[in-house]
Automatic annotation (TrEMBL), chains A, B:
The keyword Signal applies. Residues 27-154 form the Cytochrome P460 domain. It comes from the Bacteria. InterPro entries: Cytochrome_P460, Cytochrome_P460_sp. Gene3D superfamilies: Cytochrome P460. This is Cytochrome P460 family protein. It comes from Parahaliea mediterranea. It holds the Pfam family Cytochrome_P460. Residues 1-20 form the signal peptide. Keywords: Signal.
Length: 158, 158
């Protein structure tokens, strides 16, 4: 019986260690959140490969508090919704979703990356995570110089 | 006394006729409404003079019902928020507000223009109305071919 308990504990410990990277939840309902601002990133920009297209930022209510106070509370979520930029007849319109980027504030879960969890969902698909355990190098490294603004680049506008 | 009453009535009638064009209310709080979609209109486009820049569409709850049902109820408001497009380092960002366009559904007040009131507020300033009594020619003429879609060009997207 004792060995059976030990084996069971071993399996449980392995499962725990496999789940060690805290996961950013998919931001259900984000299209109803407040539109913060937008930008087009064009060919020739150093971030074109990763972020070329037209992107919109959205914020939930906790993130709106953060934009106003300069310090984002736990539960704040900022969305970077990147769509293809479709050039047609002297317009730039929106094409399909390239990636849905998420910053999710949780000081405890994401203490290694400034209290923010970072994730990207390819094509907006909740099952296609493109950052996973690489947030420190893939995301936080670029945000780190923004420490005085709680690691956030964007600002609310009228 | 009789002539005094007649004069008073005459003044009242004149005031009424001066107010005959129904006014579209300024859409207070529209930046909290749902972001529908965005587009950049560039030089060379036939509407560049009027609508060049980056614009965002927002919808209130009644307008969201209209997008879903194909028929917009009274009280539906759609915003066309036009900002300067700022080209810088292979990005197109947002500059100052050029005009805040409004479509406001009220079948009775705006029966002459498909049930929609049209207005533009220069620079987003509630006191600078640029359409006023010219909605039929300045706005509705372009929207009229969209009759089957209740005179609306845009559509909701994911």
């Amino acid at each position: 019986m004792k060995s059976k308990i030990l084996v069971t504990c071993g399996i449980a410990a392995t499962a725990l260690s496999l789940q060690a990277d805290p996961e950013v939840p998919y931001p259900t309902g984000y299209r109803d959140w407040q539109h913060v601002k937008s930008m087009v990133i064009e060919q020739g920009h150093p971030l074109y490969t990763a972020f070329g297209g037209i992107h919109h930022l959205y914020a939930n209510n906790e993130a709106l508090k953060g934009y106003r106070d300069g310090r984002f509370p736990n539960g704040a979520v900022i969305i970077f919704d990147l769509l293809e930029a479709v050039h047609e007849g002297n317009t730039i319109g929106e094409g399909s979703r390239k990636v849905l980027g998420v910053m999710h504030k949780d000081e405890d879960k994401f203490s290694a990356t400034g209290g923010w969890g970072f994730e990207g969902f390819a094509g907006g698909d909740p099952s296609r995570r493109v950052v996973a355990g690489n947030a420190a190098t893939a995301c936080f490294a670029c945000h780190q110089p923004q420490k005085d603004r709680d690691y956030v680049f964007s600002a609310l506008r009228d």
